[in-house]
């Protein structure tokens, strides 16, 4: 078979598990050429963070092209291009940030900050450039969760902008870096809102694909300021399966809908308790509440995570599960969540056919 025919067949046969389309329909092949020595050069660009899938794609194409006419070897270059998506109400983009994603919960104690830290690390592991803004002004925790030493302060550029602290490959900004751990934030709403805006707009974010904002629980001043002043491409809502958490989760989803921020998915945390001694799994807080919530609102269920002691221990030690045990089941779940989130946002309003023109036929 000709190279063109084999390429088309191979790309058509691979169904992307997160886009729900074949690579052919996604039009990810940017260029190809066949050298005189039989080397077939392929260049592909994928539209979402999915570095963990690239090995499987390379193997698939390599095997498929073995029988192509004139091909002796395959040199495949795979890259990713994560596009910016407009926020609500035409709010101007943050400099250095392509997409802002809010991580929220209707109530406290559901593990939102732990989810934020691990999800950010998973997105980075999938090839994205990621930052985290800890917007929980009263109780900032991302610095501790991501292993930033106590007392470390962000740099200042020309006395105008903060330089975010680097932690596990993430760019990080938090109120915890500007005060001591024992300083209580006895502030009224306008001061809190001002602090959020200052950290978001006066931090020198460096070429981020995603800035995850770890919001405080509820639907108060911080959330309102976010909706009015910061361009949010999408939101993730964290809940547990229990009824009271789901009640508040609904309020969170409805809040984002009212301010024209699309909900990209729901994370159900503490789905089951796994005994560290015997491995027995028991749904302490009910079952599949997040599943029902996602179905009710027609949004993806990004993932279900267990209540397990090691997740808490690893986060408390400053090395969340994704970096502490990258091959663990929990890390794999976060990787799946990261790809689903990235793909969901990429499909929100982008016309992939325009981004990646059909180049089959170039020799």
What does this structure look like?
Strands 8-9-5-10-4-11-12-15 form an eight-stranded mixed β-sheet, with helices on both faces. The protein has two domains: 3-82 and 350-355, GMP Synthetase, Chain A, domain 3 (2-Layer Sandwich); 88-346, Rossmann fold (3-Layer(aba) Sandwich). The radius of gyration is 22 Å and the shape is globular. Residues 350-363 have low confidence and may be disordered. 34% of the residues lie in helices and 21% in strands. 46% of the residues are buried. With 363 residues, it is α/β, with parallel strands linked by helices. A hairpin with a 6-residue loop joins strand 13 and strand 14. Helix 8 packs parallel to helix 9 (289-297).
Task: Sum this structure up briefly.
The protein has 363 residues and is an alpha/beta fold.
The H/E string reads HHEEHEEHEHEEEEHEHEHEEEHEHHHH
- The CATH topology of the largest domain comes to Rossmann fold
The gross shape turns out to be globular
CATH superfamily of the largest domain: P-loop containing nucleotide triphosphate hydrolases
| Count of helix runs | 13
The mean pLDDT is 86
What is the subunit arrangement here?
single chain
CATH domain class name of the largest domain: Alpha Beta
Total domain units: 2
Number of strands: 15
Structural class: alpha/beta
Beta percentage is 15-25%
End-to-end separation in angstroms reads: 15 Å
Global Rg: 22 Å
The amount of helix comes to 25-40%
The CATH architecture of the largest domain is: 3-Layer(aba) Sandwich
């Amino acid at each position: 078979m000709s190279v063109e025919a084999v390429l088309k067949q191979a790309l058509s046969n691979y169904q992307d598990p997160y886009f729900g389309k074949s690579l052919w329909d996604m039009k990810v092949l940017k260029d190809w050429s066949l050298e005189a020595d039989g080397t077939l050069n392929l260049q592909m660009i994928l539209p979402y963070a999915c570095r963990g899938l690239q090995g499987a794609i390379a193997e698939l194409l390599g095997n498929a092209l073995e029988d192509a006419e004139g091909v002796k070897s395959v040199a495949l270059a795979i890259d990713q291009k994560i596009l910016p998506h407009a926020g609500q109400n035409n709010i101007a983009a943050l400099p250095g940030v392509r997409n802002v994603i809010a991580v929220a919960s209707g109530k406290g104690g559901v593990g939102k900050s732990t989810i934020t830290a691990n999800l950010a690390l998973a997105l980075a592991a999938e090839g994205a450039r990621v930052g985290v803004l800890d917007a929980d002004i009263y109780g900032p925790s991302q610095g501790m969760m991501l292993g930033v030493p106590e007392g470390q302060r962000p740099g200042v550029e020309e006395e105008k902008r903060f330089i975010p602290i680097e932690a596990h490959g993430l760019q990080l900004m938090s109120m915890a870096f500007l005060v001591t751990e024992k300083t209580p934030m006895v502030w009224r709403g306008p001061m809190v809102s001002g602090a959020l805006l200052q950290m978001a707009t006066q931090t020198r974010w460096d070429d981020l694909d995603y800035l995850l904002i770890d919001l405080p629980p509820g639907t108060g001043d911080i959330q309102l300021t976010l909706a009015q002043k910061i361009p949010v491409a999408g939101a993730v809502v964290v809940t547990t399966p229990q009824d009271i958490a789901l009640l508040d989760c609904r309020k969170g989803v409805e809040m984002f809908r009212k301010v024209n921020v699309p909900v990209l998915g729901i994370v159900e945390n503490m789905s089951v308790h796994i005994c560290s001694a015997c491995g027995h799994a028991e749904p302490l807080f009910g079952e599949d509440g997040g599943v029902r919530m996602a179905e009710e609102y027609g949004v993806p269920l990004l993932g279900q995570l267990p209540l397990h002691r090691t997740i808490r221990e690893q986060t408390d030690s400053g090395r969340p599960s994704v970096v502490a045990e990258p091959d663990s089941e929990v890390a794999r779940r976060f990787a799946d969540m990261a790809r689903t989130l990235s793909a969901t946002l990429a499909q929100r309003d982008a016309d992939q056919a325009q981004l990646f023109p059909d180049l089959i036929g170039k020799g």
